[in-house]
Design a protein that fits this description.
It is a single chain. The protein has two domains: about 45 residues; about 100 residues, no CATH class. A hairpin with a 2-residue loop joins strand 1 and strand 2. The chain has a two-stranded antiparallel ribbon with strand order 1-2. The chain has about 150 residues and is mainly α. The protein is rod-shaped.
């Protein structure tokens, strides 16, 4: 009986230790994930525009991600990088939050216009009930309207 009790106690101790180790591992993993998420969030908050006057500072990938749209490298040249560094200086000089938001909005408008000029980035028109995804001239009523003869 005593041997069986000792064996049972050893088994219980091993099980408890394994459970404790698993719990500790999970807690450590959660803590590590939280730290990584916090670091990623901090990195995104601390992103700044690099001074591009020197070609050594150019990023390897020249695609700049602004929210969800990617601005292709064909749009950017040294002039644009200088413009962005000047824009950063102007942005830092603004005092009120509303002025900063307006400034960002204006820059986004300019960038969107530049993206729209690049035909590789122009998306096709949206398909809806009105246009049914066809160009205007190919709609049935236009074709019939041009071929219809006058009654007389």
């Amino acid at each position: 009986m005593k041997i069986e009790m000792k064996i049972e106690m050893k088994i219980e101790m091993k099980i408890e230790m394994k459970i404790e180790m698993k719990i500790e591992m999970k807690i450590e993993m959660k803590i590590q994930e939280n730290k990584e998420e916090k670091n990623n969030a901090d990195d995104e908050d601390n992103m700044s525009i690099v001074d591009m006057t020197d070609s050594e500072n150019w990023p390897i990938d020249k695609n700049i991600i602004i929210k969800t749209s990617i601005v292709p490298e064909t749009i950017f040249s040294l002039n644009i990088y200088l413009t962005l560094s000047n824009a950063l200086n102007i942005f830092n000089s603004l005092v009120s939050m509303q002025d900063k938001q307006d400034f960002i909005h204006e820059i986004q408008k300019v960038l969107n216009a530049k993206v729209a000029k690049n035909l590789n980035n122009v998306l096709p028109s949206e398909i809806n009930d009105y246009n049914k995804g066809r160009p205007k001239i190919t709609k049935r009523r236009y074709i019939l309207g041009k071929n219809r003869q006058k009654r007389g």
